[in-house]
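Recap from last week: sequence in, structure out.
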Amino acid sequence: MYNFMTAFSAWLIPAIIVFIPLYAAYRRVPVYETFVEGAKEGFGTAVSIIPHLVGMMVAISMFRASGAMDMITGAFRPLFDWMGIPSEVLPLGLLRPLTGAGSLAYTADLIQTYGPDSMIGRIASTIQGSTDTTLYVLTVYFGAIGIRKTRYALKVGLFSDIVGFFAAIFVCLLLFA
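Predicted structure tokens:
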């Protein structure tokens, strides 16, 4: 069954990529013209996102360079150690809502340091897949389309990140310990 699923997943994306234009052609949709029109709209969206993206990147850099990240992780480290949670994953929990690239780089560093099959590597990988870049999404995408009242979206997004963070740790400790 594992070999079948591996082969199936390897061919699924190419099959979808081939299927979509063939189905569009069958439905008599002008495939190339529709693609070009979508690319034009995508370019405009990318240009409107750039100012928000630059602002978010500057804020993240300031947060890390100021030492605030180290101060926060240092304050929570004794609690995490007492609960039996590897404190090495705490910065990932703080980075993930801010930046996908930064949290991915930190996850890669944890995996390189401790190994992919270590508890820290497994927890970091699961956190990476269980949480979202909430502040990035709110800043870039909401800002690009002009949504200014993000109070409830921020609360729900950060709450789901906290739940995803601790659920990832709990599941990994339960399954792999």
